[in-house]
Amino acid sequence: MTSPSRTQVLSLYKQIIRNANGFNNYNFKNYFLRKARTQFRETKDLQDPETIQQAYRTAKQELGVLKRQSVISQMYTFDKQVVERIDSRKHTQNSGR
């Protein structure tokens, strides 16, 4: 098997980031975003084709898990945490009352 191309790796990274952003829970969302950035940063300098292929396969498997968990997360609502941004349109509409 050949190593994945740069385009394939970047596409996988974008999919992971997109699915991590799909979490409604602030803590889960930020955990998966940090994890993705860290893992891709740690593997960016790999040279061995077999090691690169293994890292790519592992990331694709984790993407599958992330997609399923993201869908499940969207089924539940969570209260906003203090550190989350408030929708400014809602905030300004309610402050005029």
From TrEMBL:
Pfam families: Complex1_LYR. GO terms for molecular function: cysteine desulfurase activity; molecular adaptor activity. Residues 8-64 form the Complex 1 LYR protein domain. GO terms for cellular component: L-cysteine desulfurase complex; mitochondrial matrix. One of its GO terms (biological process) is iron-sulfur cluster assembly. Transmembrane segments: none annotated. PANTHER family: LYR MOTIF-CONTAINING PROTEIN 4, PROTEIN C6ORF149. Belongs to the complex I LYR family. This is LALA0S08e03246g1_1.
